[in-house]
Amino acid sequence: MSITPRPPIPSFIPESAPFTPEQRTWLNGLFAGLFGLQESVTPLSDADAAKLLGGLMDGAIQPAAGAEDDDAPWHDPAMPLPDRMKLAEGRALPRRLMAAMAQQDCSQCGYNCKDYADALFGKAEKRLNLCVPGGKETSRMLKQLYQELDGAPAAAAAQAAAQPASTLATPPGRGRDNPVYATFLRRRRLNKPGSEKETWHIDIDLAGTDLDYVVGDSFGIFPANDQKLVAAVLTALHVPPDFSIGDRTLREVLTDGVSLSPAPDMLFELISYLTGGERKQKAKRLAAGEDPDGDAAALDVLAALHKFPGIRPDPEAFIEALDPLQPRVYSISSSLKSSPGRVSLTVDAVRYEIDKRTRLGVCSTFLGGRIAPGDKIRVYVQKAQHFALPDDPAKPIIMIGPGTGIAPFRAFLHERQAIKAPGRNWLFFGHQRSDYDFFYEEELVAMRTAGLLTRLTLAWSRDGNEKIYVQHRMREVGRDLWAWLNDGAHVYVCGDALRMAKDVETALTDIIAEHGGCSPHDAARFVAELKSSGRYQADVY
Ligand SMILES: Cc1cc2nc3c(=O)[nH]c(=O)nc-3n(C[C@H](O)[C@H](O)[C@H](O)COP(=O)(O)OP(=O)(O)OC[C@H]3O[C@@H](n4cnc5c(N)ncnc54)[C@H](O)[C@@H]3O)c2cc1C
Ligand SMILES: NC(=O)c1ccc[n+]([C@@H]2O[C@H](COP(=O)([O-])OP(=O)(O)OC[C@H]3O[C@@H](n4cnc5c(N)ncnc54)[C@H](OP(=O)(O)O)[C@@H]3O)[C@@H](O)[C@H]2O)c1
After folding, report:
1. Which of 201, 219, 328, 431 to mutate to test the pocket of ligand 1 (most atoms within 8 A of CB)?
2. What is the predicted pLDDT for the residue at 76?
3. What integer pLDDT is reported at residue 325 of this predicted model?
4. Are 539 and 402 in contact (CB under 8 A)?
5. Whose CA is nearest to atom 2 of ligand 2?
C-alpha cells in the first residue's frame, strides 16, 4: 500500500498558548483546514489565537465542510485496522482516534467516525466501546490512544466542534440515548425451505411512539440476550438468578444490560485477580490482547468462564467487567406512505457454531426468534446522513443491493410507487439461490409488470458452478448503465461493506472507463464526482 507523505501542519497556535502539545497540533490542523493553508505561516499572537477559538466556539467561524475529512485516507471500511493506524501515524490524536474506528459512519455509536473521535478527544464522551463494527479491536486501540489524553484538560475547541449526541437533549425515539417502546407485530421468513440463509421480514407497530421516518433512514433496536445463554452464565458463576445488582436482579442485568458476546479485556483482568500461577498469566495475556492458546476469537463471556473453571467472581465486579449491551441498527425496508404507522426491516439471523455450541447474533436472533407478536421493544430512528432518494422524483435511480442490501431499496420503490414518481428505477439484486433466496419475489415481479421497476437484474451466486455476483451482471449491461448515468441517474449501493461495496465500485469505475471512453484515472474521478454531488450513495455494513 502506498502512503502519501503528509505536508507539515502550519503553526498558528503560539507555544505560549495554554494547550498541551497534542491539543496545539490538533488546533493547528483545524485552522489549517479552515484556511486551506498548506505551508508554514507566522504563529498567531495569544490574543488572536484566543479570538479564533472564541469564534469557533460561538459558531461565528465554521470549518469548511469536509475540510479535514478529505484528508482521511484511512476512511475505508474494508481497510484492516493496522493499515489504518499506519496511515494515521504522526497525525494529531483526534485523527488517530478516528482511524481506530471501523470507518463505516454507521451512526450506531450515535456519531459518525470523526465526531466520535473528536468527542473522545474533547472528553465530552468517555465511552470507548461504542463502535459496534470495530468490536474489541477498536475499543482496545481507543483505550491505548486514550492514555495519551490522561490528565489533559478538556480541549475546548474540540468540544465546540463535536457536539455529542449524548449531551444534546435527544427527542424521544430520535437516537440511541433516548429510545421509546414500539410493538413487535410479526415476522415472515423470506427464504424458502432448503435455503442456507435465515432472513426475516419484520413488521413493527409505531402506534403511541410519535415516530416517523423517511426512506433511507435506519432503525435502532435494543435487543435482549438469549435466556438459555443467560442461564448458562448464571450456572457458571454459581450465583442465584435473583441476586440483587442495584434495584435489578442479576438475571435481568444479564438479559438486557450487558453484552455476553466477545469476552472483554476487563473480564480477563478480573479473572487474573482471581487465579494464580499459569492461569493468572494466561488471563493477563488475554487481557492484554494476546492469544496464548489460539482460542481468543472464540471466547465469548460463557466460554471465558468455562476456560477458567472454579473462579467465583463477585457478581457486581463481574457485571462491571462486561461491556454494555449495544443497540443494533437496520435499514428500514418500508415507506410510511404505503405502510402508515409501521416500520419494516429485513434481517439476516446470525447463527454459527463454535466448539459444538451455536453462537447467536444477539439482535438478529432476538428479532428472528425470541420476541413474540405484541411484545414491546426499545427502538429509535437513526436518520440517514447521506442516503436518500433524489429530490427530483423524475431522476432515474440505479439500486445495487444483494442479500439484505435490498432493504432500503424496497423502501425506495414503495415510496416512489406511492408518490407516483415518474423517474425510472433499476434494481440489481443477488443472493445465493434463485429457488430459495429471491426476497420479495412476488412484490418485485408485480412492480416490474406494472412498470414501476423499469429493470430488474438478478445475480445468483450458488445456482451454478460459477459465482455470479451483482457486479458481474453490471458489467454485462455496462453500456446501458453508462446511458442511465448520462441521463443523470443516481446510484445506490447497500449491503456488505467489506467486499461487495468495493467490488461494485470497481465494476462501476471500469464500466465508466470502457463505455465513457476515458482513462481509469478519469473514470475514478468521475466516480468521485458522483459521490461528492450525492449521485453515488452507499449504506454499507
Ligand atoms: C447502517 C446499517 C444498516 C444495517 N442494515 C441491516 C439490514 O438491513 N439487515 C441486516 O440483517 N443487518 C443490517 N445491519 C447489520 C446489523 O446492524 C447487525 O450488525 C447484524 O444484524 C448482526 O447483529 P447481531 O446482534 O445479530 O450479531 P452480533 O451479536 O453483533 O454478532 C455478529 C458478530 O458475530 C461474529 N460472526 C458472525 N458470523 C460469524 C461466523 N460465521 N463465525 C464467527 N464469527 C461470526 C462477527 O464477529 C460479527 O461481527 C446494518 C448495519 C448498519 C450499520
Ligand atoms: N464477515 C463476512 O465474512 C460476511 C460475509 C457476508 C455477509 N456478511 C454479513 O452478513 C450479514 C447479512 O448478509 P446478507 O444476508 O445480506 O447476505 P450476504 O451473505 O452478504 O450475501 C448476499 C449475496 O452476496 C454475495 N456476495 C458475496 N461476496 C460478494 C462480493 N464480493 N460481491 C458481491 N456479492 C457478493 C453472496 O454470495 P456467496 O455467499 O455465495 O459468495 C450472496 O449471493 C451482513 O451483515 C453482512 O455484512 C459478513
Report:
1. 328
2. 87
3. 96
4. no
5. 498
Q: Could you give the CA distance from residue 117 to residue 128 in angstroms, rounded to a whole number? A: 10
328 lines ligand 1 (CB under 6 A): yes
The CA 497 to ligand 2 mean position distance, Å, reads 9
In the block, cell 436518500 appears at 388
Place 157 in a pLDDT band, splitting at 50, 70 and 90.
Answer: very low
- Burial level of 394, CB count in 10 A (0-12/13-18/19+)? exposed
Residue 108 Cβ contacting ligand 1 at under 6 Å: yes
Which of the 8 DSSP states describes residue 404?
G
Q: What secondary structure letter does DSSP report for 153?
A: P
SS3 of 380, please?
Answer: strand
Is the distance from the beta carbon of residue 334 to the nearest atom of ligand 1 less than 6 Å?
no
For the chain, report the end-to-end CA distance as a whole number of angstroms.
23
How far apart are the CA of 498 and the centre of ligand 2, in A? 9
More confident residue, 74 or 9: 74
In the numeric block, the cell 493553508 is attached to: 37
Confidence of residue 382 (pLDDT cuts 50, 70, 90): very high
Write down the pLDDT at residue 385: 87
Name the E strands within 362-421: 376-382, 397-400
Helices (H), 419-519: 441-450, 470-476, 478-486, 500-516
Q: How far apart are CA 509 and CA 489, in angstroms?
A: 15
Q: What is the pLDDT of residues 80-107, one digit of tens each?
A: 999 999 999 999 999 999 999 999 888 8
Q: How large is the average pLDDT for residues 232-250?
A: 96
Joined together, the cell numbers standing for residue 449 give: 409488470
Distance separating alpha carbons of residues 387 and 394, to the nearest angstrom: 18
Q: How far apart are CA 413 and CA 419, in angstroms?
A: 10
SS (H, E, C) 420-443: CCCCCEEEEEEECCCCCCCCCHHH
C-alpha cell at 350: 446470525
pLDDT-derived band at 482, boundaries 50, 70, 90: very high
**Are 378 and 180 a contacting pair, CB within 8 Å?**
yes
DSSP-derived 3-state class of residue 359: strand
The yes-or-no verdict on residue 149 having pLDDT over 90 is no
B/e letters for 446-461, b = 16+ CB within 10 Å, e = fewer, are ebeeeebbbeebbbbb
- Residue 224 sits at φ, ψ, to 5 deg, of -125, 150
Measure the CA–CA gap between 286 and 300, rounded to whole angstroms: 12
Minimum mean pLDDT among 109-123, 240-254, 391-405: which range? 109-123
